[in-house]
Amino acid sequence: MIKTIIDKLLGKEPAARARKSRFGKREEVPASVHGIDPQLVDQRAVDVVRTLKDAGHEAYIVGGAVRDLLLGLRPKDFDVATDATPEQVKHLFRRAFIIGKRFRIVHVVYGRGREHEVIEVSTFRAFMDNSQAEQVSGNERTSKLALASMKHAVDASGRVLRDNVWGPQDQDATRRDFTVNAMYYDPETQVVVDFHKGIQDAQKKVLRMIGDPATRYREDPVRIIRAVRFAAKLSPLGFKLEPKTAKPLLECEPLLREVPQSRLFDEMLKLLQTGHALASIEQLKKLGLEHGIYPLLDVVVERAGHPFVQAALADTDRRVGEGKPVAPSFMLACVLWQDVKQGWERRLKKGYHAFPALNEAIDEVFDQRIGDVSGRGKLAADMREIWVMQPRFDKRTGSTPFGMVLQARFRAGFDFLRLRADVGEIEEDLAEWWQEFQAADDARREDLVAQVREEQRQKQKAAQPAVRRAPRKAEDVQEASPLDTIVSEGDAPAKKRRRRRRKPAGGADMASSGGSAE
Asked: Does the annotation count 266 as an active-site position?
């Protein structure tokens, strides 16, 4: 009591209130209030939580999954937070892998092949004062050896390079980014644990950063991109960035230059491949961030209004909405096709052969647009295959069509062709032919190829030069007009007809007398 009075006289806040303002107040919200439908919760995430709790640990579904559940959406990914260390988590599951350096987390894997699912498990982290963290002069790459032995480290700008200090749940909530992403859901008790009024912000449709936004962006500049992504994803539901959260975005954008290119590349793909590509581009323009985040993203934003690129982005959004898989190689192949096409045409005009010209144009685009991030890996190989397939679609006779449909990337190449037809870049008939060919049986495929062969034969026949037969009489030959002989451009000139020699009366041979044939 006396201490409280003294604190008031000195203008200090009571210790309890200071703690509340920093780490928030724990609120346990029952199902009758939050209304989450348990049927929307992935049973594998429930299994991870149950396994951890059976081993004596705290465990909750956390983050964006809880936010989506509150909004009545079915989350695509489920993350779990626990007080167990990564090593303890790994020990509890048969297929679990510790990944990451900046943040050490565990991937618990269910299933195999394309049908597998990953539940990401993170350990509660302590809220650390970055001014007391170890500092390095370089970045992740230049300070790799020094960072290996550090648990909490920042660079010269205050960007966190290591954050692997474990702590209590309330501190873990405080170090998360947005209030609507900092809630914890126990699928067994169906209680939501909320420290920063995330449920209220979800009801108000507000995206609010926990703590001082500018400071949080300096800690991790990638939060700038995350702010854009969440605003784009939730804008159809009426969500908006809180003004204080949005205000520092533009002035903090230069901090992204210190972030590794590979991480920016991954964040760009999240912007464009989570089902809200067009909305993300709209948000970037609205917030003044359309240039400077990442060079390749600048190209996407710049070309988003082009019919072909716009169709590709809309198609990606549609596929994600339908639960279908999407590949970054396809979307980027569409965005950069303009560059490839121009480089290809330029080389053809110089007399290059078609396929060497195309491959040189592709190499040039990789060097200029993608660089070393992913330009020489599987991504580039898939993009190249999509592009190289395009001129091969024109050949629909012989064995080529049968071999094309057997290629692993045929469907991506055809979808690319389909988009080109949709925007009028190629004839619609070509796309329709390949649509029918790939779905047909062998007999029908043979018929389709035969039809093309016959059409080509008819066209060649119609294109052949029509040469009129020269008259037999000498007087007709002399009076014939040069226009009577039609020669197409590039064909050999017609040969002159000579009159047949006539034998003189009496059977004498004209040739023996040295007479002329004329």
From this structure: no
